[in-house]
Design goal:
It is a single chain. By secondary structure, this protein is mainly α. Among the domains are: 70 residues, Serine Threonine Protein Phosphatase 5, Tetratricopeptide repeat, CATH 1.25.40; 101 residues, Alpha Horseshoe (Serine Threonine Protein Phosphatase 5, Tetratricopeptide repeat), CATH 1.25.40. It has 19 helices and no strands. Helix 3 packs antiparallel against helix 14 and helix 4 packs antiparallel against helix 5. The longest helix has 15 residues. It comes from Methanothrix soehngenii (strain ATCC 5969 / DSM 3671 / JCM 10134 / NBRC 103675 / OCM 69 / GP-6) (Methanosaeta concilii). It holds the Pfam family TPR_8. Keywords: Repeat, TPR repeat.
Length: 349
């Protein structure tokens, strides 16, 4: 059930990139930026609050080059495993874990049960416990590329990138044509600041699976990390041409456009992302930043208000709202927004 990686992928943000949508603490991670501002910097507004720069991670094993592990030894274990998979697909991860535990009880050496339990634990953000499951799977079956891949993605989630690279290298040694392993290795390299090596890894993944949208998106992040914004946009466009319904690719494209000062185009990209995921505060915030860059302050304010409606506890968005109100000469409201930002922990540096 390595498909957990799809969710992880969009949620694991490089300086502040994206790994999985639906899972996620993405917003908190993304907003932990190092450069706080006393006056709005449009580029930072549109980029730093975006799903952080940790490489876009993940892999959907439903479309993976790795075979889905479904050959348990015990018939009873097989029944529990199937029930667990069905519950997993319904998003009932705690119940799925109980089923996987039952499968393990019937067949302690069942690789599928250990890996799928780890995948469910990852969905619940219990990465340490998940890694223990993957450790068990790799201990029992050291020649399983999928088990090493899952372990690598879990280590990426924990920012343990050196260990993740080792896990992905093990997977690649076993199956050099695992696009998932090359993608995961790229994520770990990108988050380690090794953007050139990350691009090489993503290119290997794409050569194996040309329609691997996540790898194209991740390549865009790595190119962006090298300041190659135009090339990054080309990579995002490729990802979008493969899967136009992934809001993260539209958001990433918007970030790159904003960095180039193309705020009109950025607004359109963020708008497409919002159509796909209207309850993502990050997307509304980024759209507000792009409007701010166009001096369209009323529209920026509307977008920041929407972001706050979705996530009222994010200090940085309150600060940006204050800056926008200040630009509109609405001093009293601006002061109130700045005060709220400070109350929530915003500090000038």
């Amino acid at each position: 059930m390595g498909w957990v990686q799809e969710r992880i992928a969009k949620s694991v943000p490089v300086k502040g990139l994206v790994i999985s949508r639906g899972y996620d603490t993405r917003f908190e991670s993304a907003l932990k930026i190092t450069d706080r501002i006393s006056h709005i910097n449009v580029e930072e507004l549109g980029f730093s609050v975006a799903p952080s720069e940790k490489a876009q991670s993940v892999v959907d094993f439903k479309d993976s080059d790795e075979p889905r592990m479904r050959i348990p030894k015990s018939r009873e274990a097989s029944k529990w495993l199937k029930k667990g998979d069905d519950l997993y697909d319904q998003g009932k991860f705690d119940e799925a874990i109980s089923c996987y535990d039952n499968a393990i009880g019937k067949d302690p050496k069942n690789k599928l049960a250990w890996v799928n339990k780890g995948a469910a634990l990852l969905e619940l953000m219990k990465s340490d416990e998940a890694i223990s499951c993957f450790d068990k799977a790799t201990e029992l079956y050291p020649k399983s590329a999928e088990a090493w891949n899952e372990k690598g993605y879990a280590l990426n989630r924990l920012d343990r990138f050196d260990e993740a690279i080792i896990a992905f290298n093990n997977a690649i040694d076993i199956n050099p044509r695992s696009a998932d392993a090359w993608n995961g290795k790229g994520i770990a390299l990108d988050n380690s600041g090794k953007h050139d090596e990350a691009i090489q890894a993503y290119d290997r993944a794409i050569a194996i699976r040309p329609k691997f949208a996540i790898a194209w998106n991740n390549k865009g992040w790595a190119l962006s990390g090298l300041g190659k914004k135009e090339e990054a946009i080309q990579a995002y466009n490729k990802a979008i041409s493969i899967n136009s319904k992934d809001p993260s690719s539209w958001n990433c494209k918007g970030n790159a456009l904003a960095d180039l000062g193309k705020h009109d185009e950025a607004v359109k990209a963020y708008g497409r992302a919002i159509e796909l995921d209207p309850k993502d505060a990050i997307l509304w915030n980024n759209k507000g930043a792009a409007f701010y860059g166009l001096s369209r302050y009323e529209e920026a304010l509307e977008a920041f208000n929407k972001a706050i409606e979705i996530d009222p506890q994010e200090a940085l968005i309150w600060h940006f709202k204050g800056e926008t109100l200040k630009a509109l000469n609405r001093t009293e409201e601006s002061d109130s927004a700045f005060a709220k930002a400070k109350e929530l922990g915003y500090r000038e540096e």
